[in-house]
Amino acid sequence: MTQTLREHAEQQFAEELAALARADSHARPPNWRLSPHAVVDYLLGTTLDDGFVVSPKYIGSGRLMEIAVATLATDRALLLYGVPGTAKSWVSEHLAAAISGDSTLLVQGSAGIAEEALRYGWNYAELLAHGPSHKALVASPVMRAMEEGRLARVEELTRIPADVQDTLITILSEKALPIPELNDEVQAIGGFNLIATANNRDRGVNELSSALKRRFNTVVLPTPASEDEEVEIVRYRVEALGRALQLPAEPPALEAIRRVVTIFRELREGATQDGRNKLKSPSGTLSTAEAISVITSGMALAGHFGSGSLDDADIASGLLGAVVKDPVQDAIVWREYLETVVRERDGWKGLYGACREIS
Predict the structure, then answer these.
(1) The domain at 60-220 falls in which architecture?
(2) I need a labelling partner for 191 at 20 to 30 A (CA). Which of 129, 160, 260, 265 fits?
(3) Residue of 193, 239, 205, 179 lying closest to 78 (CA atoms)
């Protein structure tokens, strides 16, 4: 049997979702698989009365997750907003998995997307043969979510052109999708709602209209508040990815993860941890997601071409690509950081040498 490279959340965590459903004694909104209380437990992790351990999917403010889940239990849609790499898509997927049992009703936003992706399209062979009919209609993920009482997901909402974005206004305000070609409409049933994501790097690309903004409750997902929190996020995700990808390398030492996280945080914030040195920041976001990528790619190098244990040379290879997005300006920022910070830090000589060799 062919192994799936990446399972959907409802498949990967089916056992946890089933255990939460069995233990869930709280009220559930229409067509929700779990109560809001159990959905938050699924996101943040918990230990059930029978000893079953539910792993955390989001490491951060529990109150933010409560607000997000409570929003989806109302008639307002949810907009997850923040810098790239703050787990917006990750949270969106797990919310849909826990609430609807289906995270696949997804529209990926882009500059070239058409209205049909949010509304409906047509089977043109059927349309030409028999004219407009329900049989010829091709439902979008949003339409299917309305018909089935599930959550729809729209990724990168601000990448979508404004005139296409506004297709959502009628859907979110009237809970209905007109089909003028058939003199008909689809009315949403209980349980339908929409989760959208947007990042602040795309701010100004296609701003949301005031009318559309009013239909959303915005929850801003911040970067991890502390280094320890970010290290734990990276460790958890790297271990999960290593298992999924079957990388032939040992799980990385916590110290290796902490070094990458420290570098990213210092360059992001423009200052060293002790506040003594001001630093220039590169053009990239240096998000937690990129830190996960650096460690994972280092594990692949170590497993396939190295000793099987992550070392400084494996980390350096990923660091350069993550930091230096602009080959001119970012290269200067990176060299200054290497010489003024990494070179002088106790225990970092090996990483400094490996980074210099690659640079």
Answers:
(1) 3-Layer(aba) Sandwich (3.40)
(2) 160
(3) 193
**Amino acid letter for position 214:** R
Q: Are the CB atoms for 301 and 343 separated by under 8 Å?
A: no
- Which helix (H) or strand (E) segment holds residue 55: the answer is none
Q: In Å, what is the CA distance from 333 to each residue of 59, 127, 359?
A: 30, 58, 12
Query: 53-54 and 46-47 as β-strands: parallel, antiparallel, unpaired?
Result: antiparallel
What pLDDT, in 10s, does the model give residues 225-258? 899 999 999 999 999 888 888 889 888 889 999 9
Q: Which of 246, 235, 348, 248 is nearest to 307 (CA)?
A: 248
**Residue 104 pLDDT more than 80?**
yes
Distances (CA, A) of 319 to 168, 235, 264, 299, 334: 40, 17, 9, 13, 10
- Measured from the Cβ of residue 253, the count of other Cβ atoms closer than 10 Å reads 12
Query: Which amino acid is it at 3?
Result: Q
Query: Beta strand 137-139 with 120-122: parallel, antiparallel or unpaired?
Result: antiparallel
DSSP code string of 199-220: EGGGTTTSPPPHHHHTTEEEEE
pLDDT tens digits along 175-227: 999 999 999 999 999 999 999 999 877 665 778 899 999 999 999 999 898 99
For residue 114, is pLDDT > 80? yes
Give me the residue label for tokens 């920022």: 333
Helix (H, G, I), strand (E, B) or coil at 103: coil
Taking a C-beta distance cutoff of 8 angstroms, is the pair 46, 34 a contact?
no
Cα 159 to Cα 109: distance, rounded to the nearest angstrom: 6
Residue 151 near residue 145, CB atoms below 8 Å: yes
Tokens of 114: 């058409």
Structure token digits, residue 173? 């305000």
What is the predicted pLDDT for the residue at 203? 60
Distances from the Cα of 298 to the Cα of 84, 293, 310, angstroms: 21, 8, 6
Tell me if 105 sits within 8 A of 144, measured CB to CB: yes
Residue 122: both structure tokens together = 């047509």
Give me the pLDDT at residue 359, please. Answer: 74
Question: Which tokens go with 215?
Answer: 């239909």
DSSP class of residue 339 equals: I
Domain ranges of the chain: 60-220, 227-358
